[in-house]
Amino acid sequence: MPHNLHNSLQEFKTASGKSGKFYSLPALEQAGVAKVSRLPVSIRIVLESVLRNCDGKKVTEAHVKQLANWGPTAQRVDEIPFVVARVVLQDFTGVPLLADLAAMRNIAHDMGKNPKVIEPLVPVDLVVDHSVMIDHYGKKDALDLNMKLEFQRNEERYQFMKWGMQAFDTFKVVPPGIGIVHQVNLEYLARGVHNKDGIHYPDTLVGTDSHTTMINGIGVVGWGVGGIEAEAGMLGQPVYFLTPDVVGVNLTGKLPEGCTATDLVLTITEMLRKEKVVGKFVSFLARARHRFHCLIAPRSPIWLRNTAPPWAFSRSMRSPSTSCAPRAAPTTKSKRSRPISGRKTSLAFPRPVRSITPKHCRSI
User: Fold this and answer.
1) C-beta of residue 65 within 8 angstroms of C-beta of residue 34
2) Domains plus CATH for the chain?
3) What are the two backbone dihedrals, phi and then psi, of residue 264, each rounded to the nearest 5 degrees?
4) CB–CB of 220/187 below 8 Å?
5) What is the mean pLDDT of residues 126-136?
6) Which DSSP string corresponds to 153-183?
7) Beta-carbon neighbour count of residue 286 at 10 Å?
8) What is the mean pLDDT of residues 28-40?
9) How big, in percent rounded to 5, are the helix, strand and coil portions of the chain?
10) Which of 127, 160, 250, 292 supports an S-S bond with 174, CB 3.0-4.6 Å?
């Protein structure tokens, strides 16, 4: 049963006349909890998750008030219980986590319980890309030849993954040959907005790869974690972290002739290293970003987030806006994208892909 703390559970209507519910942050401000409208966008997205998942046990009203009263110069002593909307796994860490779920089902069966009760509580996508080997290249049929060898060498492994897809309703596998995990996450798996039991909420995630922060380029909160934290997230447990500092990056002016977007990205990376942004959120300001978007290559904000591991920070954030739409939609003009209306300008976010299966995957 959804709670209605501070009358925050409210209803909205879309341009098509459909209705839904969401947890409103302005309701916290109206209730006198805190000046939520002054919070950075990244903190507000995390606050929405804390508010929505407030159950009085794992996440309490005190957690909501602590984060809502975030201050730019306050001491960072409080831990945030952050419940993510989904989890992304790469194959090196994803297969052991699937084995853990299988072991849990065995134990449930041995105890006389229904094994089906063991199920990830959030959508989980495993992208096979890290372990793929390249034997053929420079040929038209190189991809097909490599895929055949991949499935021959690792037949038992892919049978196990196939079983996982069939056994768990919320567990999906993206087979090899589709793309690297970051590309697949950006172009296929990012949903923008989730809908569960009629309640709509922003897309958030953790991934078992250090470059998960690339998803921040389209306004989605996410970062890389270890396998234990990812498994906890799969089972609906919060990911705990200290209330972060937020570092704002204000980009002004324009690039001189002959200076590329890569030069700019590497320069910003060097600057942020010097600022020691360990464990901090980095936000790129909206006004500067709009000018920035017009002056450099369109993909550079995503490249910038791909350099996040060298900064050793938590995540970088840009708000969803009209400049995000070309990145949020698939690179080809596909019918997968679905506009979210209600404003004069709509954002096109891709629908969740339930399965992406190349021809060779049928053999397992």
Assistant:
1) yes
2) 5-82 (no CATH), 86-242+357-363 (3.30.499.10), 246-313 (3.40.1060.10)
3) -65, -45
4) no
5) 89
6) HTHHHHHHHHHHHHH-TTEEEE-TTS--HHH
7) 12
8) 93
9) 40, 20, 40
10) 127
What the block records as the tokens of 57 is 């046990």
If you search the block for the tokens 């995957």, which residue do you land on?
361
Torsion 277-282-288-291 (CA) sign:
positive
Check pLDDT > 70 for residue 80.
yes
What gap in Å lies between CA 155 and CA 362, rounded to an integer?
12
How far is residue 107's CA from residue 6's CA, in Å, rounded to a whole number?
A: 41
The answer to which of 11-25, 44-58, 115-129, 258-272 has the lowest mean pLDDT is: 258-272
Report residue 76 as tokens: 């960072």
Q: What is the mean pLDDT of residues 29-46?
A: 93
Residue holding tokens 């296929």? Answer: 188
- CB distance 121 to 168 below 8 Å: no
